[in-house]
Amino acid sequence: MAIELGKLGIWRHYSGVDAQFAAEAEKLGYGTIWLGASPGGDLAYVDDLLAATDHLVIATGIVNIWQDEPADIARAYERIVAKYPDRFLLGVGAGHPEASKEYKKPYTALVDYLDGLDAAGVPVAGRALAALGPKVIELARDRTAGAHPYLTTPEHTRGAREILGAGKLLAPEQKVVLGTDAAEARAIGRNTVKFYLGLSNYVANLRKLGFTDEDVEGEGSDRLVDALALHGDADTIATGLRAHLEAGADHVNIQVLNEDPWPAYSEVAAALR
């Protein structure tokens, strides 16, 4: 992989990442910030984040294929990498059916979008694909630098690595809550996890991972929430993140759910060193 993401990154809604945030994350040792919630357009804010840091990588997690044409995204990509080579990874994906009225045949749409990126000159090594199911993971393997799974477990990571094989990027997202009060931490985790239980593609993937109908009903079982939103002290969270790395991930990006994320960013990074 030409782009070095490091072992640990941060996944955060793009509206919550500015130049100061990026600089502080780099100081703590994070290798990459993933800009979540479908950042798109000309990606102008990426330049500011890279300008404020020395070696941090910025990745999109993800640019939604229903939102921007590949030629437009390719122009933004070329602008960024011309100024900051090997520090930007273009993550793309189809999102979920409930997000777009135009959501039709997502696999075919992904192939068409990658064709468009090819035609516009975006290199395979410069892009990654949001991937949950085997077919899309195979597409990530064949047409991009690798896969960026979201809302998964180390078991999914292990299966994804088997499909990707060696040498392809595997960068799962993992939600975390720093806190030793289990009931309080689980409540914070559930407040985020429950949203995804209304989205068919995530629920289908969770069932494939062995979670039952009871696990995915309502706001989610304790078992489900504990798996999808790791909680505990920094050492406990670090152990859960290492499980992804041991299962074959190259890089894990954490989504901190605490209201003030900085204690978690600091302590988890230190515990994982």
TrEMBL record:
Domain (Luciferase-like): residue spans on this chain: 20-115
Matching InterPro entries: Bact_Lucif_Oxidored (IPR050766), Lucif-like_OxRdatse_MSMEG_4141 (IPR019922), Luciferase-like_dom (IPR011251), Luciferase-like_sf (IPR036661)
MF-aspect GO terms: oxidoreductase activity, acting on paired donors, with incorporation or reduction of molecular oxygen
An example Gene Ontology CC term for this record: cytosol
SUPFAM superfamilies per the UniProt record, alphabetical: Bacterial luciferase-like
NCBIfam families reported for this sequence: F420_MSMEG_4141
Cited PANTHER family: CONSERVED PROTEIN, LUCIFERASE-LIKE MONOOXYGENASE
Descriptive protein name: Luciferase-like domain-containing protein
